[in-house]
Specification:
This protein is mainly alpha-helical. The chain contains three helices and no strands.
Length: about 110
Amino acid sequence: MSMEETIMTLVVKSGQARSAAYEALGEAKQGRFEEAQKKMQESAQWVMEAHDIQTELLVMEARGEMNQISLIGVHAQDHLMDCMLARELITEMIELYRALSHKKDKEDGQ
């Protein structure tokens, strides 16, 4: 795989991770916490794959196989960091939705 293809794969996998996390948030908003958890697990898998690519790129740079910074490489890093931040915030938001749901259930006498 060429360097550009590797970097674009990082962008795609990061985007998939972010999308799955936002889908999880949508599920949590509807009170479907098991589905939200499954989507977050899917997101985690995409992040792991993206992180593996990032590690591969860092190793290549450390070996001297990459000697210039490309805008697309910076863009890929932005995507990965954005998805990781989104996942952290969405995890907290899902927990808030869960707590509100439990509170509502108690108030409703369930």
